[in-house]
What we know:
Blueprint: E1 2-6, H1 11-22, E2 26-31, E3 45-48, H2 54-61, E4 66-69, H3 76-81, H4 83-103, E5 108-114, H5 137-156, E6 159-165, E7 167-169, H6 187-194, E8 202-205, E9 217-218, E10 220-222, H7 223-239, E11 247-252, E12 258-259, H8 260-271, E13 277-280, E14 289-290, H9 295-301, H10 309-324
Parallel strand pairs: 1-2, 1-4, 2-3, 4-5, 5-6, 6-11, 7-10, 8-13, 9-14
Antiparallel strand pairs: 9-12
Helix pairs in contact: 1-7, 2-4, 4-5, 6-8, 6-10, 8-10
Amino acid sequence: MTILVVGGAGYVGSHAARSLRHSGYKVVLYDNLSTGFRRLAQGFELVEGDIADEAKLRPVLASVDAVMHFAGHAYVGESVENPRKYFRNNVLGALSLLNSALDTGIRRFVFSSTCAVYGIPEQIPITEQAPREPVNPYGASKLFFENALEAYSRAYGLRSVRLRYFNAAGADERGEIGELHDPETHLIPLALAASTESGPELQIHGSDYATPDGTCIRDYIHVNDLADAHVRALQYLERGDEKDGGSLAINLGTGRGHSVLEVMQAVENVTGQSVRRKMGLRRPGDPPVLVADPAKAQTVLGWTAKRSLADIVSSAWTWMQKTSSGS
């Protein structure tokens, strides 16, 4: 079976591609390299193209059996400042990809979604039945595509799994690939950089939340655990189990939250250096706590996150040292 990994030169997509190959699938990557990196695609067939380019995409789709879609813009702050960019790619471009896949006979589709579709939740931990009320254009764009997948399931028999990530972090333990973003906005790589002599000071956004230490709490999940969940989602679609309907939503998290200051401590434990930091004001729309209820993933996919926060930070530090040395 051949899988098209759209956005396969990006952070999560490149890890999922390796998990798929390790599980015996043939993998083809499709990426326009606007935010992806050629080095993350090394060792795979890579087709360079945009998801809205039907002429480029359709011949590739004709030779695959299923699609995993990772090619989304994913900066919350940028989505507020430039919503046009987000709706153009995450909605219009994604719909073009979906229609092309449907027209070429593909009926299995795994989508990289986000806990941002929930907005500011009323209850913690968050189940898949929580209201979907995004508070920024990024979350709204992801929710739009989720709704499209549900509608396509009812109308056309497309079977899909919508994987709602919490905070993806860490790097492949073998050191081959890891997190590369420009600009980097994720807490753990920023904290690791702030523990080095040359790295910038870490800006902490808010210290007055209603949490034990006043900083935001998030559910950090290792990227290799995420990648494993994508393989299991594909296997679920292969089994053809219809008890949950044609379009299934699954939260991907550990079920345990860590505050910003707890992450700082984990970074200091790994690097042996202090994280230089300064406290700033809250960012608009940042929920105090986001923690997944991962029970459905366990029940339906047989999946549980295996790696801890310490594992995440350690793997990210190894990757950062490798990339800073130019290797």
